[in-house]
Amino acid sequence: MAEAPKSVDAAERAFRLQILTWAAVVGLFLGGAAGGGIAELQGANPLIGIVIGIPTVTGLIYVIAQFTVKRAGAAAGTIYHPSGASTPRKPEYSRAASLVARGRYAEAAIAYELHAVEAPEDPEPYFQLARLYRDHLKQPEEALTWFRRARSDATLGPGQELYVIQEVIDLYFDVMRTPRKAIPELTRVCQRFPGTPAARAAEKQLALMREQLARERDALEPFTAEFMARIRRVRGETD
User: Fold this and answer.
1) What does the pLDDT read at residue 43?
2) Where are the domains of the chain?
3) Which of 146, 161, 191, 200 is most exposed, with the fewest beta carbons within 10 Å of its own?
4) Strands in the chain per DSSP E
């Protein structure tokens, strides 16, 4: 690893030497001819013009070539690495994942939180934290917080956004047993993903919930108890 900078410097010097050699060859012919011709037109000794013209043209060509190469390299870097990094690096969460595998969930949560601070645009640490709090630490409120933070802080694609909404709905339904709180999320699915199977399912769920809320207003059935009982019947579950 310690030899890498020396190798890079040697390659850089060799590349510059190639450019200089090419510039000198072109400068010898072009600069000599141009310098001698100009001197002769001015009534001066052509040899003086040749002596001046060769290094002048050589230097000019060298500078232009260096500038062109650097601009080309910068353009290529912008195309292939838009973030500005010379080598794109996929975030690694192996240490946090290994802590989860060993059952050290609190330490894993801290590790994932650090990753979220270091790469706030990457949704993966938020997702991992939410699942960690839900499945292992049994803290659904914290899981809900991290799913929401993924939506507000990270950069999500449409599929990831829908995933977050569905996970929040499942938390309200299956873990927290507060289906009424899922109504805004179901509405969000219909608004953000109209015409999709997820939106159609959300519309049916909302219609069911509106019916049961109306029954609750009429003092016929408590909404939450009736809704959860109906969900269990649909799923074939028993109390």
Assistant:
1) 73
2) 8-80, 120-235
3) 191
4) none
**Residue 111 and residue 134 in contact, taking contact as beta carbons nearer than 8 Å:** no
- Among 35-39, 65-69, 165-169, 188-192, the minimum mean pLDDT is found in 65-69
CATH for the stretch 120-235: 1.25.40
Q: CB neighbours of 216 closer than 8 A, spacing ≥ 6?
A: 222, 223, 226
CA pseudo-torsion sign 168, 173, 174, 175: positive
Closest CA to 204 of 228, 186, 222, 229: 186
pLDDT in tens, 15-28: 566 666 766 766 66
Q: For residue 216, what are its two tokens?
A: 């609750």
- Considering the chain, what percentage of its residues have pLDDT values greater than 70? 65
